[in-house]
């Protein structure tokens, strides 16, 4: 590639890509898209699937899900700017989740385990925690 082509690529990426594609086609080369990088964090739907596996009882899963939806929107890295609460279940301090696993910052399964243990020990169940949340706006 020439320096002129590189300068054009920086100035006009769409035009440069089209020019490269034409050049490649005329020389018999094939341009292929690079493979997408694997996601490093779980999406909300995969965190929900994990929770569903860990909480087979439908009523308890629904209650857990409602709390998580309100607290973090199923975002494993959700952080409350004012309090520092973190994760799916908004643990405060966040480091409390380390008792469920060293990977608590990035692993939805670890966060779910900690959240379930918390709800069960403090309220008796996710459903009871949800009842408290509805009455108080927090749990």
TrEMBL record:
Keywords: Signal. Residues 63-130 form the Transglycosylase SLT domain. SUPFAM superfamilies: Lysozyme-like (SSF53955). Residues 1-38 form the signal peptide. InterPro entries: Lysozyme-like_dom_sf, Transglycosylase_SLT_dom_1. The keyword tRNA processing does not apply. This is Transglycosylase SLT domain-containing protein. It comes from Streptomyces lutosisoli.
